[in-house]
């Protein structure tokens, strides 16, 4: 077979994504810390990857030495504003140092302002359930952007608002207000406030920094009806699809948030995004299930025979990435798109190389239609704290030994390093790291 390479456009961004609570360690002043202490998570975050203790430096060395040219990280609100009336200038300095460190290593920062964690004081006031959160979030955003604007103009206001609202208020896996508020009605309220927060942040950032590019990261789940000919499966698929995927996109397109409980007007958010971030992991199959009242009678699952990650959390369905990007470009023609997360939990690195290869191929397919896709962030660089699932899932290119903080170089480190260096993926690489999919990617 002749060797071949799928090339990416010049200047394409290749990196990894992380989030403050998942990597920093010793984060003891937010809702997740409280949730962990109350015993709602499989493990505690503890030292995590010890970035706050300084290990971000060695990890950013790793990213740079393996040819990455960008990194997406998040700022921990509870560190910047430990109490409603107090800013922590040292914490801001620390983040300035981190972003400077990224720049010195040739890594363009994408900075997320909210990634699932809220300061404890906000949590105690039932945070995003109340519209009063909006000016508070805006104030925090202004403080951060003023402090960090020297180092980046690429901002992500809120990570996966749909996951934040639904995992908390519907599934009960994420911390909700201390009084235990739950239900789709509260989730809808929270989503509307997150939209208002996004709008306020978008305007504030642009006021401070004229050339800012501001967007958010949407966890997007393509969905299929289990039996497309069966009206109840098709209906459930549509309800789940709308409920999970469409709150933010519908509101940003039209000023009206569509939810399974009806429409909510959020006119101030209309048109407010400079790019769309897509977090893609897998595709759900949906069937009608009379026992799932809380999920509006829709059961989401992976069909038997799927290529599953070790805990069954993710199925390797690469064309779902293409479909997600297709949806994005149809919804917002010409808007730049970033794949702000994509990856798989796999402590033994058996699935990850072929997951990576096949998703990069789908990305390349999409780029060949001239869709304006600007970068790809792998989730994640090093194993990090996986929320309610604790340390049971290992998403890192690098493994983490929790006892010693040693990083373990998985084969995917070198595979991704070759992809970033080549700015493409070649048949030689695939033969070396995941020969089982060589014929799929490079037939003949
Ligand atoms: O770890 C999470 C991340 O915080 C948000 N997106 C999905 C990842 C994997 O579960």
Name some characteristics of this structure:
444 residues, alpha/beta, TIM Barrel, 8-stranded parallel β-barrel, 3-stranded mixed beta sheet, 40% helix, binds 5-hydroxymethyl-3,4-dihydroxypiperidine
Task: Describe what this molecule looks like in 3D.
With 444 residues, this protein is of the alpha/beta class. Helices cover 40% and strands 17% of the residues. It contains 16 helices and 17 strands. Strands 2-3-4-5-6-10-13-14 form an eight-stranded parallel beta barrel, surrounded by five helices. Helix 3 runs parallel beside helix 5, helix 7 (133-148) runs parallel beside helix 9 and helix 12 (319-331) runs parallel beside helix 13 (352-367). The longest helix has 25 residues, at 184-208. It is globular, with a radius of gyration of 21 Å. The relative contact order is 0.14. Bound molecules: 5-hydroxymethyl-3,4-dihydroxypiperidine. 5-hydroxymethyl-3,4-dihydroxypiperidine is lined by residues 19, 22, 160, 279, 341, 379, 386, 395. 5-hydroxymethyl-3,4-dihydroxypiperidine binds at residues 19, 22, 160, 279, 341, 379, 386, 395.
Task: Give a quick summary of the entry.
The protein is of the alpha/beta class and 444 residues long. The protein has 16 helices and 17 strands.
Most strands sheet: 8 strands, parallel, barrel
Secondary structure class reads alpha/beta
Tell me the CATH topology: TIM Barrel
Q: Which outline best applies?
A: globular
Helicity level, as a percent range?
25-40%
- Total tally of structural domains: 1
Task: Specify the CATH homologous superfamily.
Answer: Glycosidases
Query: How many strand units?
Result: 17
């Amino acid at each position: 077979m002749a060797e071949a390479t799928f090339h990416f456009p010049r200047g394409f961004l290749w990196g990894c994504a992380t989030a403050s609570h998942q990597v920093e360690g010793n984060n003891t002043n937010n809702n997740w810390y409280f949730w962990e202490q109350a015993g709602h998570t499989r493990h505690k975050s503890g030292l995590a990857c010890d970035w706050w203790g300084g290990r971000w430096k060695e990890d950013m060395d790793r990213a740079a030495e393996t040819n990455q040219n960008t990194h997406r990280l998040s700022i921990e609100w509870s560190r910047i504003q430990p109490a409603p009336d107090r800013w922590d200038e040292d914490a801001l300095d620390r983040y300035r140092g981190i972003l400077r460190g990224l720049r010195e290593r040739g890594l363009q920062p994408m900075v997320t302002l909210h990634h699932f964690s809220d300061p404890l004081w906000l949590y105690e006031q039932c945070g995003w359930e109340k519209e009063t959160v909006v000016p508070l979030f805006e104030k925090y955003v202004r403080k951060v952007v003023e402090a960090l604007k020297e180092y980046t103009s690429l901002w992500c206001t809120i990570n996966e608002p749909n996951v934040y609202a639904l995992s908390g208020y519907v599934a009960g896996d994420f911390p909700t207000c201390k009084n235990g508020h739950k239900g789709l009605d509260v989730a809808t309220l929270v989503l509307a406030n997150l939209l208002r927060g996004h709008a306020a942040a978008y305007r504030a950032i642009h006021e401070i920094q004229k050339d800012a590019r501001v967007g958010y990261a949407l966890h997007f789940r393509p969905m299929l009806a289990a039996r497309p000919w069966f009206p109840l499966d098709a209906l459930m698929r549509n309800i789940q699809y709308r409920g999970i995927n469409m709150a933010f996109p519908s509101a940003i397109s039209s000023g009206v948030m569509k939810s399974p409980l009806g429409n909510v007007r959020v006119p101030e958010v209309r048109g407010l995004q400079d790019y769309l971030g897509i977090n893609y992991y897998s595709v759900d199959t949906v069937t009608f299930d009379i026992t799932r009242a809380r999920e509006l009678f829709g059961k989401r699952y992976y069909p038997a025979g799927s290529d599953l990650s070790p805990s069954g959390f993710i199925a390797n369905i690469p064309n779902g990435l293409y479909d997600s990007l297709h949806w994005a470009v149809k919804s917002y023609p010409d808007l730049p798109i970033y794949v702000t997360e994509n990856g798989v939990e796999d402590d033994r690195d058996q699935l990850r190389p072929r997951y990576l290869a096949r998703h990069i191929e789908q990305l390349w397919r999409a780029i060949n239609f001239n869709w304006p896709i600007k970068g790809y962030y792998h989730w994640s660089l090093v194993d990090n704290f996986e929320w309610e699932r604790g340390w049971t899932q290992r998403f890192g290119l690098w493994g983490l030994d929790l006892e010693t903080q040693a990083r373990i170089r998985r084969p995917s480190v070198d595979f991704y390093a070759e992809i970033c260096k080549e700015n493409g993926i070649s048949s030689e690489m695939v033969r070396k790291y995941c020969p089982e999919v060589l014929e799929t990617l490079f037939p003949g």
